[in-house]
């Protein structure tokens, strides 16, 4: 349950509360219905009791008689479920429906008071009875009357059961409506989290550089914390970049001085010593260039964007002016509206290393194409050079490795290009086509602003 989604937790909690509420409603409504029915029956029993009291009269001899029994035929049918009994000291009258059954009455209530009680009835039934005591004046003095009217409780139970049976479909319908309302509430209530998720997706895709304050109040603190972390990370990267740049610039002069001393040693004929100094200087310079390249890559913003055609034209226009580039045929097919999520300077640096390598090994032609496919921009650089085996291609991507060891260079170009592309969320693929080398850059595409 700890890793369950918020929707599932809210849905389960809401369903549990809803079930408990509906059960409580069913019990409460049944209880209220039962009380209402008992009050209604009590009113009917009270009317019957009043009728019986009014029907008891005193004859000329002063003796009490029941002048007119209740006309309802149910009181004449044995064990009909409706009964009455009147006791006046030595005199007593009962409904024919009681037949030979005698109501087991408790102690009589005080005169002028009523009592609604439950009594055992004939044939193992339970009766709801209204028991009443009154004082009736007669010619021979006041007489105490006890009037008891009763009805079979099974009628109340049947009415309650029918009420509950009719109520259940309505409660079920109400439950489904409340569940639907709860689902809508959950969707609406959790919508801000979806908004936050989209904002984070925009951050990852480079469409935004911060979440911002345009979020609901409840998640605003979280958004501010994330933005603060992004600001701190950007500041730290910028500080690292400045430190690397300061280190590089600080080492340039001493390294140049060492190269000058190496040249002086070479002029004096101390070639081995000069070579040793130059080797150390070049090693230090490679490390400096490496750290500068890493700092440059790390400083690229997520919201960076680069125009593929413009970056390619910039690199090609420079290389075409070189003697090797001027001797080649260039075929370039790049749509003008391709935008990739990568810093323009980083893309230029990566393409510069790759196209320069193609110029070095091409015999007659270099082909550069680009296309948009499934949210990616694919930039392909092909030369018609000798190509290389697969094991050399794998070694080529390692830092400090060069195809041509006859010339100067650090061997960082292709590995740095690989780092630049990887940092932008893309891939760099090098394959031997059998008629030269093909290098493919796959970068995330962006809409043209």
TrEMBL record:
Class in the EC hierarchy, top level: transferase
Catalysis performed (reactions): ATP + protein L-histidine = ADP + protein N-phospho-L-histidine
A Pfam family recorded for this sequence: HATPase_c
Record key words, sorted: Kinase, Membrane, Phosphoprotein, Transferase, Transmembrane, Transmembrane helix
EC number in record: 2.7.13.3
PROSITE patterns the record matches: HIS_KIN (PS50109)
UniProt GO MF annotations: kinase activity
Keyword check for Kinase: yes
Residue ranges of every copy of the Histidine kinase domain listed in the record: 246-447
CDD domains: HisKA (cd00082)
Membrane-spanning ranges: 170-193
Statement: the UniProt record of this protein carries the keyword Ribonucleoprotein: no
Protein's UniProt name: histidine kinase
Organism: Fuscovulum ytuae
